[in-house]
Amino acid sequence: MLSDKSRRVVEATLPVVAEHIGEIAERFYEHMFSAHPELLDGVFNRGNQASGEQQRALAGSVAAYATKLLETPERTPEHLLSRIAHKHASLGIRPDQYQIVNHHLMWAIADTLGQAATPEVAGAWNEVYWLMAHSLIHEERGLYGARGVTPETVWRPWEVEKKFRETRDVVTFVVKRIDDRLVRTSLPGQYVTVRLRMPDGVLQPRQYSLTRADDGAHRQFSVKRVEGGDGRPPGEMSTLLHDSVDVGDMLTLSLRTGTSYSTTPGDRWSSPRRESASRRWPGCSPTSRRPSPDCRSRCSTRTWRRPPSRCAARWSMTSSNCRTRSCTSGTRTALTASNR
Ligand SMILES: Cc1cc2nc3c(=O)[nH]c(=O)nc-3n(C[C@H](O)[C@H](O)[C@H](O)COP(=O)(O)OP(=O)(O)OC[C@H]3O[C@@H](n4cnc5c(N)ncnc54)[C@H](O)[C@@H]3O)c2cc1C
Ligand code: HEM
């Protein structure tokens, strides 16, 4: 819970922080990457940085968290954090890295606000940051622990067993484990991060949704080619996966994460993923009555495919739409407990 003193300061400075969030985000990343260039080698997605997407996400979420803390001071808004923790866990983010982000974010806030950033103001925002950071570290520790990994061992080599074309611009990969580690069942809407070395030698991570119930040895995901144009270069990872990765090659994938599996028949997709998936896969709208063949192959969840075995008994088969089929609510506890 935020202290009374900090609460008053955050309340007074939230409008100015929110107003300058774009600038704070830009300065934060610039400052952090110049001190820690290694974070652009296998941790941060440089396509997102270059295209400006996501730049505001981190700094913006601190402001959003502060807003919620002010609205409901009696409880910390932990529900805002799950999605972030899952993304962090898919990238192997470590607790000690929170100090780095803290240092550069606080620097960017102070630098942007100038004289308005008194020690009192800096202290109050630092408190918000660490409330959030401790919750994230805690949840991430839980995610790593439940999967029996550490941040250093989330990455795992897989062999490409199959690669097939779904449509002109979508290919599907089936990868097979080459170690003894269990391949845990994924839940609808979950994803893995693929990490590949780019032609310039830099490691890059990208997320891909899992598209099939797992059989204990494989993962499957589909990749849409990102075309260039209008001054934008072609997507680097999707181009590499389409053109250069073939059957027999090795791919590095992280553990499966993602919070957007459905819980009740009326809540098949949580709204953020529902929006982003339908944006990402035109023709695969959550409202389409029947999926087109195109939609079927492109849908980023396991639509029209087998449900995970643990879920099968209670899997709702009522939906004919192009969307994730849902477990009934009673299944949720068992699923989350056994599949984290
Ligand atoms: C949770 C999640 C699940 C996802 N699931 C899937 C999935 O199932 N299938 C799928 O295909 N994708 C999925 N994605 C998207 C995927 O992770 C990648 O973002 C996508 O493949 C593009 O990566 P890329 O490396 O090819 O493109 P990038 O190289 O990252 O480029 C992305 C965009 O930025 C632009 N850009 C890059 N550099 C510059 C620059 N210097 N100047 C201007 N513009 C630039 C590119 O032109 C392109 O438009 C998912 C993403 C998330 C977050
Ligand atoms: C309190 C501290 C932090 C907050 C509030 C925060 C917030 C966020 C948010 C909101 C996202 C976007 C999530 C999504 O796309 O769903 C994100 C992604 C990410 N975060 Fe954090 N984060 C924090 C700490 C860290 C730390 C310590 C690191 C490690 C250096 C880190 C690395 C990343 C990376 C690599 C991504 C993915 C970004 C991309 O690929 O473009 N974050 N974070």
From TrEMBL:
Q: Which residues form the Globin domain?
A: 1-141
Q: Where is this region: Disordered?
A: 257-304
List, alphabetically, the InterPro entries matched. Answer: Cbr1-like_FAD-bd_dom (IPR008333), FAD-bd_FR_type (IPR017927), Globin (IPR000971), Globin-like_sf (IPR009050), Globin/Proto (IPR012292), Riboflavin_synthase-like_b-brl (IPR017938)
Q: What is its EC number?
A: 1.14.12.17
Task: Share an example GO biological-process annotation for this protein.
Answer: cellular response to nitrosative stress
Classification via PANTHER family: FLAVOHEMOPROTEIN
Task: Identify this protein by name.
Answer: nitric oxide dioxygenase
Q: Which organism is it from?
A: Actinoallomurus iriomotensis
